[in-house]
Amino acid sequence: MYGLTMAAFLLAVFVNGKICKDPNMVSANDFFFPGLNMPGNTSNPLGSKVTPVNVNQLPGLNTLGISLVRIDYAPYGLNPPHTHPRATEVLVVVEGTLFVGFVSSNPADPNVKNKLFTKTLYPGDVFVFPEGLIHFQFNVGKTNAVVFAGLSSQNPGVITIANAVFGSDPPINLDVLTKAFQVDANVIKYLQAQFWWNID
């Protein structure tokens, strides 16, 4: 119970699953995170690394409705299609050239496809990914890329689409995925057999 007595635990205020710290125990370190000047390790199959600064790393963010990430990309590195269920993301490119995009939610008309919005970004460019929509970033340059992004939640969450669909434990039933993706079962088996990287 985080070192609390039972009485203090019962009186503690939970916000977004986090206990609000006793104000008498708060220090400047609860509002401090060092190291966003350091590049993340991009030596993985996706060639990218997300360094989050949310309530899990910086307790002082609890209840403030904001967080931050640094994302590093090797040449041709990818932050794969994912979504933040609790946050809009605003991204600024510091270094490199990125191809970014997001997909609209399902249209009301079943005969209309989801719309893809894309843009090539350069240093100083800003792009917004609306809350809950699937989005991605791909370094199309031959050099490293760096971005910083603000998110409108102290705990935005992330669901990486391929990881969630093909890498869950236990796996989603083969019949469900075969029917959903309208492909042969061997394609689903192949995808489920892959190792799905988490770059956070």
Number of helices: 4
Main sheet overview: 5 strands, antiparallel
* Helicity, as a percent range: 10-25%
Strand content: 25-35%
Instruction: Please tell me what the overall shape is.
Output: globular
Radius of gyration, rounded? 20 Å
Order of helices and strands: HEEEEEEEEEEEEHHH
Low-pLDDT stretches: none
Distance between the termini: 27 Å
**Class from secondary-structure proportions:** alpha+beta
Strand order of the largest sheet: 3-4-11-6-9
Protein name: Germin-like protein
Main location: secreted
Signal peptide: 1-20
Binding site for oxalate: 79, 84, 89
Report on this structure:
It is a single chain. With 200 residues, this protein is of the alpha+beta class. Helices cover 14% and strands 30% of the residues. The protein has 4 helices and 12 strands, in the order αββββββββββββααα. The chain has a 5-stranded antiparallel sheet with strand order 3-4-11-6-9, with no helix packed on it. α3 (174-181) crosses α4 (185-192). The radius of gyration is 20 Å and the shape is globular. The two termini are 27 Å apart. The model has no long low-confidence stretch (mean pLDDT 92). Residues 34-189 form the Cupin type-1 domain. InterPro entries: Cupin_1, Germin, Germin_Mn-BS, RmlC-like_jellyroll, RmlC_Cupin_sf.
